[in-house]
Amino acid sequence: MTNSPKLSLETIAQLSQGELRCEDSALLISEISTDSRGAFARHSLFIALTGEHFDGHEFVENAYKKGAAAAMVSRSADIDSLAIPGMALIIVDDTLGALQRLAAGWRALFDIPVVGITGSNGKTVVKDMLANMLAQEHTVYRSPGSYNSQVGVAISLLGIRPEHEIAIIEAGISRVGEMARLEKMVRPTLGIITNIGLAHAAGLGDLETTAAEKVKLFEGLGDGVLIFPEDCPPLDPLELPGRQLSFSSDTEASDAAYSIVASRDSGHGFDFEAQLEERGVHPFQLHVLGRHNLSNAMAAIAAADQLGLDVESMRRGLAAFELSPLRLEMHTTQSGITFINDAYNSDPTSARAALSVLKDYAGSARSVAILGDMLDLGSRAKAAHAQLGRIVNDTGVDLLICVGALAEVVGESAVAAGLPPEAVVFIDSIDGLDSVLDDQLVAGDVVLFKASRNIGLERAAERLLESVAPARLRVDLDAIRHNFHALRRQIGAETGVIAVVKSFAYGNDSTRVSQTLAREGVSALAVAYADEGIPLRRRGLTLPILVTNALASEADKIVKYRLTPFVYSSSVVEALAEQIRRRRERAEVHGIGVHLEVDTGMNRVGLKPNEILEFAKLVQRTEGVSIAGIMTHLAAADDPCEDTFTLQQISHFEQAIETLKQANIDPGIRHVANTAGAWRFPQARFDAVRVGLGTYGIAPSKAVGAESPGLRNALEFSTRIIHIKELNPGESVGYNRTWVADSARKIATIAVGYNDGFPRFMSNGGEVLIGGTRCPVVGTVCMDVSMVDITDVDDAKVGDEVIIFGAQGGRSISVDEIASRGKTISYELLCNISPRVRRIFVRQ
C-alpha cells in the first residue's frame, strides 16, 4: 500500500486525466455513483455516463440537488459550472473511459492480493464463499452484489480502501472485446475461472470463443496462480497463463490439485472431504443445497489455500456461509400492504440504494422505511448512520422506524435534516416491532426492511412473509431487466419496445413489472382494457399506456387517465370525442391520440386494409382526436410453417401505411411484431415491437427459443409440504380413488390445487420438485391441495419447499413442460395462477 491513498477530487482528476474545476481540490469523495435516480451520500461524485437510450448529463443538476458534491462530465456536453454553483466538475473527453482509467489508477495504488473471478455461472457465490473464509483472518473487500460489468467493475475497484488486506473482484462480460478492458483495471494477482457455459451466447457465440474471452482477464497474471475446473473442454486448447491449478467436485478418480474425495448429502447441505494440493485431506461442511455448489466451494477453497489461509479458518468460514435469499423481495399482503424485504445485509451503499427502490416502487403511495443498525463499520459507524439519516430526509420517506441504538442516530439525524419528528418512531429491539406495525401501517403502504443480518430484522420481515399463503409466484425483476436489454440489443436502438402487461402482466402483477420496465426505458406499456391501465397511472407511471380493446362505454376512463386506445370503430371515436368535449370545458384535457388497428389476416377485430383510408379521414375530422400510431396483430409468427402467411400480413400492413402516406396522412408510430415477430422477423419491427411473454424469458415456441438464446427465466411457482403420511399397499389417495399404492409409499400433501392455478391435468403423473428430486403427483388434484409421492426423497419434512415450475437442486421443470402435458400453452397457465398465490418480486 502506498502512503494510504485518499480518494480526493485532485486524485480523481489526476487518475482520470480530467480537468478539475472546484474550490477545494482536497475534498475527499465518500462514494461514486452513476445513477442519478437515488439519493446521494454527502461528498459523493456523480459520473454522467451516456448510452443508447440515456444521457447522464441531463441529470447533473438533479444529482447536485440530491446531494452530490461533484460530477464527472464529458467536455462535449458543455456543462457550465456557473449554472450549478457549489458543484465541483471534472471535465473529461469520455466519461466511461475516464471512469475506467480512474479505477485502473486507483487499483494500482494498492499493493495487496487482488483475486479476479470470472466464469459463466457461480461468480458471485464463489466470491462470497471465499470472502467468508478469508474474513476469518483478514480485512477483505469484495465487489458488492453482482457488480461485474464494464461500469460495475470500475465502481467495485473504487471501493478498495487502505484498511483492506485482500480484494476480491468479480468480472463478467457479454460481448467479445470487453474482458480486455476489465483486465487493465483489475490486474488480478490470483485468478479463478468458475466454469464455461453459454450464459451470454448472443454476444459471445460458441463455447470456444467464450473461454478465450474469459481467460483474457488473466493475461497479466505472470507467476500468479490460475484456478480453473478440471473438466472443462473449452479450456483444453488454450494456453492458460500463470501457475495452473485445477479443481474438481467429482469424487471419482481425479488429477486435480483440489478435489473432493468423498461427500454425503446432509439434508441441508453436504459433509465432504477435500484433498488440498499440499495439505492432505480435510473435512468440510457446506450448509447450502445444490450439488453444483460443491464445485463452487472447491474453487473457493483452492483460492483460500493459495492465499495462505489456515485450514481451520477455511472450515469455519465455509461452514458459516449461507446463500442469502435473493435481495429486495417484494410482496403484497391481502390487506394491501407491500413489503420490501432487504434485511439480509446493510451498509451505507446498499441502504441508499434500498431507499431509492422504496421511493420508486411506492410512487404516490406512502413509503415506510424500517431501518436497523449497520454493523462492521468500526470507527465510521456513527458518522455513517448520521449520513444515512440525512439521506432518509432527502429521499422523502413518509415514515421512518428505527430499530436499535445505531439506528437511533439515523432517526435523530433525519429529524435534524428536516424530517418531521412525528414521522420517526424509535424501537429498542425487534421485540416491539410487531405492535408498532399493527398501529402504524395501513392498506396501500409500501414498507422497506433494511439492516445488517445480525440485527434480526430479517426474521421480522420473514414472519410477515410467512403469514402470506404458502403458494408463491417468485418474479425475478433482474431477469426481466436482462431480457429487456437482450431484446434491445437484438432489435437496435432505433426501435422502441412496447411492454405488454395485460392480464395482470400475464399473471405477474402489472404494477411491479411496469415500474421495473419503465425504469429500463420501454417506449410504452400495453394493456387489454382501460381498467388495467388505471392502477398504472395511479402509481405515477406517465409513459404512454396503450389499450388494445377500447370500448365506447369506457371512453370516460380512457380520456380521464390519458390512455391511448387502439381504434377501428366509429362509435369508439365518437365516444372519445364526447368525453374530450366534456373535459375541455373543465380544462382537464386537450385531446387524445389513438392507434389505428389494421386486420391483416387475424380476422378478429380491426379495419381491413381497404377500409383504413376512410377511417383515418374520419379520425382526422374528429375534434380532439388524432392519429398517434398504426398497428396490426401477427397470427402465427411463432410457427415456421406459417412464415409465408406472416410475410403476407406484413405486406398488407405496409400497403395500408402506403395508402395513408399517399393521402398525406401521417400514420404515426408503426408497430406489428409481438415477441415471436420481434425475434424472428426483422422486417416486422418498424418503429416499435410489442413484447409480453418474452419479457419473462419464456419463448412462445421452440422456433422462437432457437432465435432468442441467452434469455433468463424470470418466474418460479412454489409451495410447501403441509402433511406427510405412510401408505400401505392397496391404499388409495384422493377423490374417486384414482391412484392406489402398489407398495409401501410415502405421500406428501402440498398446499396448491386447481384454485391456485395448479391444473387438474397434473393428476396422476404430473411432477413437482422436492429436494431436487422429481416427485409424481398421485391421485386427483384437489381445489386447495394436491398429493405427491415422496418415497424417493430423503429426509423430506413438513414445511419443505415444493417447486411447481422453476429450478431446485440443479434440476428444473419449465412452464412449457407443464403446458405440453395439458395440451395447452404457457400463456394460459400463467394467466390462471390465482390471486391467492402471493407474488414475490426479487432484485439483486
Automatic annotation (TrEMBL):
Q: Which InterPro entries match?
A: Ala_racemase, Ala_racemase/Decarboxylase_C, Ala_racemase_C, Ala_racemase_N, Mur-like_cat_sf, Mur_ligase_C, Mur_ligase_C_dom_sf, Mur_ligase_cen
Instruction: Cite the CDD domains for this sequence.
Output: PLPDE_III_AR
Q: Which residues bind substrate?
A: R604, M783
- Protein purpose: Involved in cell wall formation. Catalyzes the final step in the synthesis of UDP-N-acetylmuramoyl-pentapeptide, the precursor of murein. Catalyzes the interconversion of L-alanine and D-alanine. May also act on other amino acids.
Which family is this protein grouped under? Belongs to the MurCDEF family. MurF subfamily. Belongs to the alanine racemase family.
Q: Pfam families annotated for this entry?
A: Ala_racemase_C, Ala_racemase_N, Mur_ligase, Mur_ligase_C, Mur_ligase_M
**GO biological processes:** cell division; cell wall organization; D-alanine biosynthetic process; peptidoglycan biosynthetic process; regulation of cell shape
The active site lies at K502, Y735
Q: What is its EC number?
A: 6.3.2.10, 5.1.1.1
Q: Where in the cell is it found?
A: Cytoplasm
Which pathway, per its entry? Amino-acid biosynthesis; D-alanine biosynthesis; D-alanine from L-alanine: step 1/1; Cell wall biogenesis; peptidoglycan biosynthesis
Tell me the cofactors it needs: pyridoxal 5'-phosphate
Please identify the protein, giving its name as recorded: Multifunctional fusion protein
